[in-house]
Design goal:
The protein is mainly α. The chain contains three helices and no strands.
């Protein structure tokens, strides 16, 4: 495997690990929110958007290959 391919693979793996971390964190946040008394005090739509945008901000393999190429 070339240095280029190894670097792209490593970056893709890290991006996937971050994606999984975001998903787990979102699940934990939602679990905590399910226990709050005043749900109106929490902007759940904004929190949902935040997690969505975090995931969208991560590159996929094709983007990484294009940038490296």
């Amino acid at each position: 495997m070339s240095n280029y391919q190894a670097a792209v693979s490593q970056d893709a793996e890290i991006a996937e690990e971050i994606r999984e971390l975001i998903t787990r964190t979102e699940q934990q946040v939602n679990a905590k929110l399910s226990r709050v008394n005043d749900r109106g005090a929490f902007d759940t739509d904004e929190l949902d958007c935040l997690f969505c945008r975090l995931g969208e901000a991560l590159p996929n393999r094709a983007v990484l290959e294009q940038r490296a190429g």
